[in-house]
Amino acid sequence: MDIEIILEPDISPDQFAELAVAAENYGIRAIWSSNYHQHWDAFLSLVPAARATRKILLGPLAVSPYESHPLKLANALLTLNEMSQGRARLALGGGGSVLRWIKDDINAKKLRIVRGVREAVEIIRGAASGQQNEAYAGEIFEVVRPYRMAWVKSPSAQVFTCSTEPQMLRMGARVADGLQMSDVAMPMINQAMDNIQVGLEQRELSADNFRIGNFWAWHIKKDRDVSMYEARRELIWRGSLLPPFSLSPFLEPDEEKLVIEHWMDFMKAFFTRSGQIDGVPESIVNHLIAELSSAGTGDDIDAEIERYRQFAAAGVTDLAIRLFDDPMDGLRMIGERVVPAFA
Question: Domain residue spans in the chain?
Fold first, then answer.
C-alpha cells in the first residue's frame, strides 16, 4: 500500500510546494489539494508544486462536474498534466463545498450524482487520451462537437471518482482510473470492497493498476490534548457522521440516536473552532475519534500502522492521509514512521 497526503485548502501555493517537496523526499506517492470555494483554487495551487517536484503525483479533490463543465475540467487537468510532465490526476465527486454554496438544496434540485460523475469521467478520460473524440450526448452533460486536445504530449492524466456509497463505488470501479473513498473504517471496508469488485467485474477497460484509495484523518501530535482538540473539532466531517450516517458499526442504538440528535453540536464545534461538543458524553466522542481517525501522540503510531496494514490486507492500494494544523509536523511523522512501514 502506498501513502498519499491531502492538505488543508487554506495553505498557500508556496506552502503547498514546500510540503510537496518534503513529501516527495519522504517517498510519498501523491499529494492532493482540497477543493473549497472560500480558499485557494485547487488547480492553481498545484502549479508551484508541479514546478518544484519531479516524481510525486498531484491533483485536486473533490471536484464536482456540477460546478464546472467536464470539458472545462479536462482543460484544467490536462494543463496541469503538461506542466507536471504527466503527473496530474483529478478526483471527481458529486457534491462538495462549491456545489453547496451555488445550489440552495442539492436534493431538491434532483441532481443525478452517479450519472453526472460517470459522464464527466467519460468526457475527461476521452480528452486526456489526446485522441479525436466524437460529440458526447449524455443525459446530463453534452459536448456538441468532436473534441481533441491535440496539444497533449505527456502520459495520460488519471481520472478518479470520490466514491463511498455503493452505487458510486460500483460506478467508479467500472469507468475510472481509480477511486477515493472517504473515511471508510475497518468495520465497513469489506462491504466497500465487495461493491468495488462488482464494478471491476463489469469493467470494459483494463483493470490493471486500478487504484483504490481511502481518505483518513491524521490528528497525531506531540501533545495529546492538542490532538484530541483537533480531532473533536473536525469530527463532524468524518464520513460516518454525515447523512445518511453509518454509525451502527461503532455505537449502540441509543448512542447512535443521541449522536444524531446532537449533530448540530458537532457542527458547532467545528465552526466555532472550540472543539467542544455539547450534549454527548466524552466517552462516546472519544470512541468515535478512535474508530474514525488517527489521534494521539507518537506513542500511538505503531498501533495506527497496524490499522493501516489491515486496510492494505483488505485491498486498499493508497491511504490518503489528511493533515490539518501544523502539516509539516504531521508530514514529518508520517514520512519517518509510516512510509517506511510500507516500503
Answer: 2-222+298-342, 223-296
Count Cβ atoms within 10 A of the Cβ of residue 104 and give its class: 0-12 exposed, 13-18 middle, 19 or more buried: exposed
CA distances from 294 to 206, 304, 305 (A): 34, 7, 10
CA atoms of 20 and 14, how far apart (whole Å): 10
Cell numbers for 71 = 470539458
**Rounded Cα gap, residues 196 and 105, in angstroms:** 29
Query: What helix, strand, coil percent values describe the chain, rounded to 5?
Result: 50, 15, 35
Residue 58 CA: distances (Å) to CA of 33, 97, 192, 196: 8, 20, 25, 24
Rounded to the nearest 10 degrees, the angle between the axes of helix 301-314 and helix 186-201 is 30
What is the DSSP code string of 120-134? HHHHHHHHHTTS-B-
Question: What is the pTM (predicted TM-score) of this model?
Answer: 0.93
Would you state the pLDDT for residue 207? Answer: 80
Q: Measured at the alpha carbon of residue 58, what is the angle toward residues 68 and 117, in degrees to the nearest 5?
A: 35
| Dihedral angle computed from the Cα positions of residues 104, 107, 111 and 115, in that order, rounded to the nearest 10 degrees | 150
Q: What are the cell numbers at 335?
A: 514520512
| Strands annotated E in 155-235 | 158-162, 178-182, 211-220
Across the chain, mean pLDDT equals: 94
Architecture of domain 2-222+298-342: Alpha-Beta Barrel (3.20)
Angle CA(38)–CA(44)–CA(46) in degrees, nearest 5?
110
Rounded percentage of the chain residues whose pLDDT exceeds 90:
88
